[in-house]
Amino acid sequence: MTDQTNKKPELKIVRYFNAPKEVVFEAFANAEALAEWWGPAGMPLTVKSFDFTPGGKFHYKLEGKGQIMWGIFKYVTITRPELVEFISSFSDEDGNICKSPFPMDFPLEIFNELTLTDSNGRTTLTLQGHPINATPEQDATYNSITADMEKGFGNTFDQLERYLQSRFQLQQELKTDNKARVCTYLNFNGNTDEAFNFYRSVFKTEFAGKGIQRFGDLPVAEGQPPMSDEFKKLILHIELPLLGGHVLKATDAPESMGFKLVTGNNMHICLEPESREEANRLFNELSVDGIIDMPMQDMFYGAYYGAFADKFGINWMVNYIDITN
Prior knowledge:
Helices cover about 25% and strands about 35% of the residues. It is of the alpha+beta class.
């Protein structure tokens, strides 16, 4: 804990997520994840630089609604998987701290403490923040808009909830035995339904397992805001057999929900081995000199899962589910 936390926080937000704290922590710990959910709705995020270490920085651009904003985090303390302390500021394109783009005397630096605790696979996220190195007028401005900030963070954490659902819960699927298989996993910007009906017409096969599963089929967690009718119609998970036993899987990840898809990050090779031991071997050997998105770990939906990009830039998932349990 740093000396900067001695001041009583003016902002405190508590949220609950149906995922282990290790999973929630990883959503803050890598650039690809943050690009998919951090920031206001309707303003996709571009990562300019990311160094998730004490003393490191996260420099990003938000663009949408007719405006461009730059921001920066300076990481102070990181204790995996339960604590991140960081100083947040508005910035310019070069990463220099600058004034708020809004017509108010907002503090230049905000100290934030993010803590994660879990109970039976459910995580409590607590975010506390206060200005540092601020004038009395800036402190007063900060205190006067805490309600607006709570609403803004609430919308951002709604996007985190959707990210966790779409990224992890959809992996619990559809195998009837422990026989190994290789799948291809795709993300679409809201048109999975159209794409998979097209693929079905070409390959003349039918959707496997539980058929088409939509976000509206998910149970609503306590404290989670209701989904819009448009969001309910989006596809959470779908599988289509192609040729020679190969299976194509997909989910919707539209920009309207904070995701940012580009060619390359919307496609993964998904390995489903017969055992945990083989899952570990594949993960450890394929990820050498690569970038690990998520280490192999037990997930809240019953799978043993990890993800990474190999040293050639190819995206992989390793997903083992013991059907016998």
